[in-house]
Amino acid sequence: xxTNSNIVRKQISLILVGSFIVFVILLxxxxxxxxxxxxxxxxxxxxxxxxxxxxxxxxxxxDSIRERMLIFFDIINSDDIFQVDxxxxxxxxxxxxxxxxxxxxxxxxxxxxxxxxIENQKKLLSDSQRVFSSITEQVMDGQTNISQExxxxxxxxxxxxxxxxxxxxxxxTMLGLQELILAKExxxxxxxxxxxxxxxxxxxxCLVIAFIIKQLITQGKALxxxxxxxxxxxxxxxxxxxxxxxxxxxxxxxxxxxxxxxDINRQLQQIILPTRSELAEIxxxxxxxxxxxxxxIGGDYLDVLKHKDGFLIGIGDVTGHGLESGIIMLMTQSxxxxxxxxxxxxxxxxxxxxxxxxxxxxTRMSSNKHLSxxxxxxxxxxxNNADAQGVFQLTGQHESVIVVRNNGDLEVIDxxxxxxxxxxxxxxxxxxEITQVKLRQGDLVVLYTDGITxxxxxxxxxxGFERLCQLCQEQHRLSAQQIVDNIISDVQNYIxxxxxxxxxxxxxxxxx
Length: 512
What we know:
The chain is an alpha+beta fold. It has helices spanning about 1-75, 80-105, 110-140, 150-205, 210-270, 275-280, 325-340, 350-365, 450-455, 465-475, 480-495, and strands spanning about 285-290, 300-305, 310-320, 370-380, 390-395, 400-405, 410-415, 435-440, 445-450, 505-510.
């Protein structure tokens, strides 16, 4: 009786111990499963929240920069002092929005590189703001001759900030994908641990009575449900990873499309360039041209046209990059060529016609691009008793024209007062002026785009207008082609291995 009682007690003890062991194991397994699920869910929730917050602040910062640039050009082009005052207040409000968004972004979890990029933007924006304030004071004082160099520096600084913001956005996309991959790997590790604990619990449950088996089955169902939910969660993660991969593929396709656009632009620029045979027909002049497209096409325009009274040379630079700039450049070339069919005695008319037609086309394209455009109409003087062998008329706003006389004297023709950016407004006739220059034997004339003077070396130091003028003076007795080759060689040596980010366009001619 006592023995039976001991056996019963031992059995009961064994059942209780076995039940306790199984219960503890199942409790641990459930706790690990629940903890891992909660941890991964919280991690993903934080990741999504952080990413959304970062994208929101980056978008606000980018929009603020773009809107300030639009306000900046409105201030420059406005002649209403009250409107300028209102625009300055609006610009200040946009600046406050930008600063608030940047501070909010810095409070989020950023990499050291991202924080350094944002901190580096302060200097660019500070320099841009000083120039912005200077130009604003000039506008408030009624000055109309605003320095293009200052305008370009504001544009360049803001473009650099926008590029950094886009780089941060791309980096954040890659970090988000890495986080998703890590979350998937963590779930797979959790699944392995849960499976191992379940097998151990099943083996121990076989050593006890049916009560323990029943309890294990109950807990096994709960575990199976947890595993099912975990698999569903894994499937969701896989879908998100696939979606991220699809977005990367779409970005790659966009890059391929942009590359194709650049190739088309390069082909367009090369197609319209004057040929050597066309230049050889200009007997009164020794003339040479050069154009080298940059990695990011800027839409430079360069053409030499023969007409019944002489020759028309056109040079210009479309704002922005890409296929749209190339199309506007090609339209400009066609419109200028059409003008040689008309009377060129009054050079104001061709420029006005080109602007009117181009403005209509740009408006139809819903584009905000425009271009600087300079037209030079040359005529040969056949009178042997005249004090000059040639004369040309200049009209349009572009880079300054360099003239080096036969004796080495330098003359610089500022074109700011000769026109207005083409395609920006529908009528520029009131801004268009003409200047006339006489040429004697051996006189040199140099036309160029800002890709020459704004080419930068590794220290971000610009090639500069003064260096170009000095080189032209030193080599003015050489042939036009030699001068072109030497200028391009000097620019390339100056920038070294640094990539060219704007087209290099050049026209050099000498009076025979």
